[in-house]
Specification:
Layout (H helix, E strand, L loop, with lengths): L12 E5 L2 E9 L2 H5 L6 E8 L18 E8 L4 H4 L2 H15 L6 E3 L3 E4 L2 E9 L5 E8 L5 H4 L20 H20 L3 H11 L4 E7 L6 E8 L5 E5 L3 E5 L4 E6 L2
Parallel strand pairs: 2-3
Antiparallel strand pairs: 1-2, 3-4, 4-8, 5-6, 6-7, 7-8, 9-10, 9-13, 10-11, 11-12
Amino acid sequence: MNLAPEIACPPPVACHIEGWRSLVLDEVGSTNSHASSLPPWTAVRANVQTGGRGRIRERHWVSDEGGLWLSAVLPCPGSRRKWELLPLAAGWAVLGALRDFGVADLRLRWPNDLMLGRRKLAGLLVERYQPATAVIGIGVNVFNQPELANPALAGLTARLEDIVPGGYTVDDVARLILRALRRMHAILLQGEFHQIADQLNLDWAKPRRVEITLSGRAHTFAGLFQGVDPHGRLRLLTEREGPCVYDATQVVLLRELD
């Protein structure tokens, strides 16, 4: 019986940047899944991601060539409770990195979508595959054109190329974000999350009307989003129940109404 010769996939390109061991792949299903068993301080970047996903599992994240599709493995020693703040803290870190890159009018939509008005520039997905590590998945539209892959995204996405003048690469954006993640990790390790909460609440000083769906509740309800408390819990003011706080694990969906 004749067998077709096996085609070997090219190995990932490895280098060290900003204290990370960085692996660059041409194509992968999910950078988070690829990074799931890798050691701390390893970053995986793919030119194309075919199985990218958002915080809501059934939502597919278009990951076409020219964007930044990055997963970073962080050590999470000690109490698991401390590291439950990672999704919000990582969003804060990427927000700061992109602002430093020159993106004006950028905001964080709770817990970790980066928005320009109503258009999404970047999103994050934090997953725990191993007890002692967490994988921070980050997708940033840089030079790619997601609306060509999915016309339904027309007018709903933003990309760096249209906001910040050229002369940079996807690697430059990755380097800035990886540096910000190390700084964020040090803050959480020291138990100083309140620093992050204080800065985020300055951005969230103006209450925003939202609709929220909680785990275990069949109906959604509306309220005023009022930032987060020092423990990272969402603060909501509702007409029926007054001031409420919710842990991120309780919130299935938050939708902005204005």
